[in-house]
Amino acid sequence: MDRNEKDITVNTENVESDGSTRRTFIKGSLAVGAALAMPAIITSKSAQAAGHAAAVKVGHLEDLSGNLAVYGVQKDHAAQLAVSEINAGLTLKGGPVGSGGLGAFGNVASKPPLMGVGKGDLNYVNDGGGRSKEAVTFTEDDEILVDSGDDGILGRPVELINLDGQSNNNVWQQLTRKLIQGDKVDCLVAGFTSAEREAIRPIVDQFKQLYIYTNQYEGGVADANTFCTGAICEQQVIPVVDYMVKTFGPRIYTIAADYNFGQLTAAWTKATAPLVGGEIIEEEFVPLSVSDFSTSIARIQAAKPDWVFTLLVGSNQSNYYPQASAAGLEYPMASTVNMAQGYEHRRFSAPSLNRMHNCVNYIEEIPTKRNRDFVQRWYKMFPNDPYIGQMAQNTYFSIHMYAKAARLAGTTEQEAVKKALESGMSIEAPEGTVFMEPATHHAGHYIRLAVADAEHNVQFLREWPMITPWWLHRMGVNLVGKKEYKQYIPDEDPYFTMFGK
Amino acid sequence: MEIAPLIISLVYQALTAGAFLVLCSIGLMIVLGMMNIINLAHGEIMMIGAYVASLLVTEGLPFFLTLPFCFLVGVLVGLVIEFLFIRYLYSRILSALVLTWGLGLIIAQGALLIYGPFLPSIKIPFGSIEYGGFTYSIYQLFLIFVAALLVALIYFILQKTELGLKARATMQNPEIASTIGINRKKMFSITFAFGAGLAALAGGVLAPTTTIAPFMGTQFVAPAFITVVVGGATNIITGTLYSAGSLAAIRTPIGMYLGSFAGTVGLFFAALILIRLYPNGLASIRLFGRR
């Protein structure tokens, strides 16, 4: 049973009004701290009054400047929001087995059908009446942010130490060492690109640091110290490629950022396309520094695909969209990153992102009540932010998840918290229920297929209430039973070569 | 595939790439080529141009009317930087390099603090035309025209006006120039401001094709420096044209057949070979007799 379940009837009125004054204070003190990339300390009033309890340190490292600042600033704000909520005595619902396990929306009849004895066919005594689009198969919690019954974490205030990685892998390594050895953080939340993650993971493993990587990525990291809370290829690539092949046709042109994320996600696409009847007719890898796409556009036109799979990363590469649109390139597009991370549909004039499809675990436009509440809380704290992206939401629930795990463990001792994170816990995030899968240290997500139209409005075409991270299971990974510290790649799996042509 | 549309597409791509290199490097070429100042804040001045364009478009001004403002703001920024810092560093190349690098960081980070991670993008004007299976952005064709126009304008100013003559004289030998009554401080100041104005104007015209963000300058700086170094400083006009032309002509076919990665490698490799063969830059090649 979830320990917070009993506290469900929290007086939201009080929490709101109390929270907002505190937020104003926090916002003021943090705006400066975050802006200068200086460590910021958030403590709750009650904890300050209580006095001496040493803070729980959450280290947060993201790019607040450079080519990747667009994503890092969002994630930094997410961390601040989560920590301020934890210090205000709030938590997201969930816990081992979650608040009722894996919640799922769906169409149900108003009453369960009543079945009688049939003769050669099913005999409905009562078919339950018309199907309802409103109902859910499991009651969704409207209010996911509830009283934690705790001050900060285990009565200790949470201190967020947020640093700027400057979009530079060397700086990432230095600052990771500082956070682990200097600040001795209890939990490290960090990493945008896969290059950044792989740059710091050896340091994380050297010190057995509890590390949460909140980005969506190519998948495959099996690391006893690392918990990956972003969506991965089996959750994003296969559903969207399946939809695109069936809707627009089998011929796929992949244009991807030339580093480990782009290369490996493209490899996933190539490997899984034959499973759903697709075929990669051309793959092009673009260095991160490239910002002039005339040649790529002409190549795509020469290849004449049915649709284009774009895995472009960073400010420079997002120039592709306006340039392709101005050149009259009108192929349908799919991606695992664009729109949900860099909100290209908000930044670029319509119709540059027309017919862009992406299977996301989060995007600001999700119309559920819990997400609308989250969006409101966010903009109350950061009124000038342009967008809440997929990874910002991941960072937000991940820090709450860390707090829950520490409470469950009864300590911030890192090995104990890692065990608590392996307890099969779920958390009610703004996207829906997220399940931390113990054996692979990856998250099961609520996946939605989002598409932008010619005016850049967003629509959700399909929903998968829970896609579990299954591929590392295929590879025999069980981090609970056997500790590993490597990243598996699609080439290691005979499954993929089996179907390739 | 038919051969004619493909060739036309390749020519278009090469001209587009060449125009991009010219626009990136033109302001830098003036400052480096004439004043021997390595201006590492060049990308940030281009960013300022793009910011001016985006902010004014958001205010409701038509995009093309924002371009004069981009130039003027660039000139103002150039005057201020020259007045406060650069004039003390004319004989100290490395000090100027470090100083402008720091200035660039301050300008970019300042833009991030003031305006956040992005400004609204500008819709690319005009549409596209189609020929033989390839489509062409009319705005990219316009950029080729702008690049050519700017080169012609600079040629005119430097070669045909008294100001240009004085500027060239000052750059060649400041001491002697001042003995014949040229105010060298003023000439340096004007030249730097003009270079900055051109950079900001280039940032403005390129703005619709890019993400308008604080660190957008980095995407222009590398191509700009490669173009300038390959071109050499002996003659701004021929240096820019030869360099941008040859680099684009090498990059485009490689990129078309082997992809962007190979195209980029090809560009760097070509730059390497050209610098090795012509250490003083392509401008030192005498094609039309007069240099």
Summarize the structure.
By secondary structure, chain A is α/β, with parallel strands linked by helices. Chain A contains 16 helices and 23 strands. Chain A has helices at 12-35, 45-50, 69-87, 169-182, 194-206, 233-248, 260-272, 294-303, 314-317, 320-326, 344-347, 369-381, 390-409, 414-421, 471-474, 494-499; strands spanning 56-62, 90-92, 94-96, 108-109, 114-116, 123-126, 131-132, 145-147, 158-164, 187-190, 211-213, 221-223, 226-228, 251-257, 279-286, 307-311, 333-335, 356-360, 425-429, 432-437, 442-452, 458-467, 485-487.
Q: Can you tell me the residue ranges of chain A where pLDDT is under 50 for at least 5 consecutive residues?
A: 1-51, 97-107, 134-139
How many angstroms separate the termini of chain B? 43 Å
Order of strands across the biggest sheet of chain B? 1-2
Strand content of chain B: under 5%
Q: How many separate domains make up the residues of chain B?
A: 1
Structural class of chain A: alpha/beta
Strand content of chain A: 15-25%
What is the 3D form of chain A?
A: globular
Question: Largest sheet of chain B, if any?
Answer: 2 strands, antiparallel
Largest sheet of chain A: 10 strands, mixed
What oligomeric state do these chains adopt? heterodimer
Give the total of beta strands of chain A.
Answer: 23
Estimate the helix proportion of chain B, in percent. Answer: over 70%
Q: Give the ordered list of helices and strands of chain B.
A: HHHHEEHHHHHHH
Radius of gyration of chain A: 23 Å
Q: Helix content range of the residues of chain A, please? A: 25-40%
Question: How many domains, in number, for the residues of chain A?
Answer: 2
What's the number of helices of chain B? 11
Mean pLDDT of chain B: 88
Write a structural description.
The complex is a heterodimer of chains A (501) and B (291). Chain A is of the alpha/beta class. Chain A folds into two domains: 5-96 and 143-231 and 365-445, Response regulator (Rossmann fold), CATH 3.40.50.2300; 234-364 and 489-499, Rossmann fold (3-Layer(aba) Sandwich), CATH 3.40.50. Helix content of chain A is 36%, strand content 22%. Chain A has 16 helices and 23 strands. Chain A has helices at 12-35, 45-50, 69-87, 169-182, 194-206, 233-248, 260-272, 294-303, 314-317, 320-326, 344-347, 369-381, 390-409, 414-421, 471-474, 494-499; strands at residues 56-62, 90-92, 94-96, 108-109, 114-116, 123-126, 131-132, 145-147, 158-164, 187-190, 211-213, 221-223, 226-228, 251-257, 279-286, 307-311, 333-335, 356-360, 425-429, 432-437, 442-452, 458-467, 485-487. In chain A, strands 3, 14, 15, 16, 17, 18, 19, 20, 21 and 22 form a ten-stranded mixed beta sheet that branches. In chain A, strands 9-1-10-11-13 form a five-stranded parallel beta sheet, with helices on both faces. A two-stranded antiparallel ribbon of chain A has the order 2-8. The longest helix of chain A is centred in the N-terminal third of the chain and has 24 residues, at 12-35. The radius of gyration of chain A is 23 Å and the shape is globular. With 291 residues, chain B is mostly helical. Chain B has one domain (3-217). Helices cover 73% and strands 3% of the residues of chain B. Chain B has helices at 3-35, 42-58, 63-84, 93-115, 138-160, 162-172, 174-179, 184-206, 218-231, 236-258, 260-277; strands spanning 128-131, 134-137. Chain B has a two-stranded antiparallel sheet. The longest helix of chain B is centred in the N-terminal third of the chain and has 33 residues, at 3-35. The model of chain B has no long low-confidence stretch (mean pLDDT 88). The interface between A and B is large, with 43 and 54 residues.
